[in-house]
Amino acid sequence: MDQSERGAPERNKLRGAIAEMEVRVRGLSAKGETESEALRVELLEASWQALMALIQLEPEPTRRECPHCHGRIRQNATRCLYCFGKSAPTGAETASAA
User: Fold this and answer.
1) Can you tell me the distance from the alpha carbon of 69 to that of 84, in angstroms, rounded to the nearest whole number?
2) pLDDT given for residue 7 in this prediction
């Protein structure tokens, strides 16, 4: 099995969900449709929930301020994404102080 075949069923499900969302979004502004506006919104919400279930996003990571440039970096970062300054993760600071 080559790399292009791995995950093909999952990609196909995702493509289908995205295509469904596209149809539903276009349907919101369609004039002369037989479906009521409330039904179109309900179908769009159902399509959105199906898409989100396929994507399975993780929660946004917690962030802190870089002590050097004050940019927002991940809580457990050891280097700043913006200035490359070194800093200990917040958890490490409290562990070393104890």
Assistant:
1) 9
2) 66
- Do the domain assignments include residue 2? no
Output b/e per residue, 7-33; b: 16+ Cβ within 10 A. Answer: eeeeeeeeeebeebeeebeebeeeeee
43 and 67 in a single domain? The answer is no
The segments of the chain whose pLDDT lies below 70 read 1-7, 31-34, 91-98
Residue 91 forms part of a structural domain = yes
d(CA 45, CA 25): 10
Of 21, 22, 8, 9, nearest to 49 by C-alpha is 21
39: left (phi over 0), alpha (psi -120 to 50) or beta: alpha
The whole model's pTM is what? 0.45
Amino acid, res. 8: A
Q: In the chain, how many domains are there?
A: 2
Domain that holds residue 88: 63-97
